Amino acid sequence: MEDNADKPPPTENIINSSELWAPQAWAHLQSLRKASPLIQCITNFVSMDLVANTLLSAGASPVMIHSVEEIPDFTPKVHALYVNVGTLVPNWLSAMKMAVQVAKESNKPWVLDPVAAGSSGFRLKACLELLKMGPNVVRGNGSEIMALFKGSVEENSKGADSILESTDAIEAAKYLAQISGSVVAVSGAVDIVTDGNQLVGVNNGVSMLQKITATGCAVTALIAAFVAIDPLHPFEATATALSVFGVASEVGMGKARGPASLRIGLVDSLHWLDQDTLLRNVKISNLLWLAS
Ligand SMILES: Nc1ncnc2c1ncn2[C@@H]1O[C@H](COP(=O)(O)OP(=O)(O)OP(=O)(O)O)[C@@H](O)[C@H]1O
Ligand SMILES: Cc1ncsc1CCO
Ligand SMILES: [Mg+2]
């Protein structure tokens, strides 16, 4: 890793480009609501409800189909595939790989959420194998992206939660994007998105999202939906999806009394999010220090 791996970007190299990004975020959300893409989700048991409701409230059509008996018939019909290893067992891994293969043969984008990637050898190997299959986007927290980068089991793993800041994994994200060809997103107080060349920071969201399980899983599903409607621009789709989700959480936080009501407010806000609110609140910066 380079010397500056653990340093935050120098502030003079952070260019606030929200005015350029905000109209794109609105255009993506509008297209999503109009096209209502079908998103196949092979996701963990904890997240299924929030993932499905997040996709529905944003305007997409979710479906949780994961059996190898159904994948050959069904996966060619979807607009994007979402794979999340949160409650991984061997037969689900086979289904994930089959679905990825079918999606790729059908020219459909797919997105990976490497939940708790560094928590065990089995999970890490599975995530690295899936990464090799070339997801259009990978979104994880700091610990997950760092585990994929290092390729080793974490000593102090906290499972699905991160022990690192997203900014600790900037170099790792950039490297992974370059070797995999995937867009890599690292969630946290500031979400980092890179395609190995361009790099942005998304400054939307509220810290209480960390107190609701599966908000990371939900935002990765939203990324899959945004990539479904703009498959040629996965970098842009990932940044705008993270921002839209973050803005919805900020609006939801206004009425929340704690994590449980924020969870409800988040889903409500995604459904009602209007152009004016989105344009005023998108916070995306271009981080120039790594765009070499
Ligand atoms: N400190 C923070 N301030 C603001 N937003 C945050 C903060 N931490 C995380 N978020 C937001 O919360 C959402 C979930 O990110 P997080 O990094 O917690 O995912 P995760 O660890 O994969 O979650 P899970 O595994 O529970 O689904 C993202 O939209 C992210 O932007
Ligand atoms: C808590 C938890 N455990 C496995 S998956 C999951 C949901 C958040 O990723
Ligand atoms: Mg996660």
Automatic annotation (TrEMBL):
NCBIfam families: PRK09355.1 (NF006830). Its EC number is 2.7.1.50. Pathway: Cofactor biosynthesis; thiamine diphosphate biosynthesis; 4-methyl-5-(2-phosphoethyl)-thiazole from 5-(2-hydroxyethyl)-4-methylthiazole: step 1/1. Keywords: ATP-binding, Kinase, Magnesium, Metal-binding, Nucleotide-binding, Thiamine biosynthesis, Transferase. It holds the Pfam family HK. It comes from Penstemon davidsonii. Its cofactor is Mg(2+). The keyword Transcription does not apply. It is an enzyme of class 2 (transferase). This is hydroxyethylthiazole kinase. It catalyses: 5-(2-hydroxyethyl)-4-methylthiazole + ATP = 4-methyl-5-(2-phosphooxyethyl)-thiazole + ADP + H(+). The keyword Manganese does not apply.
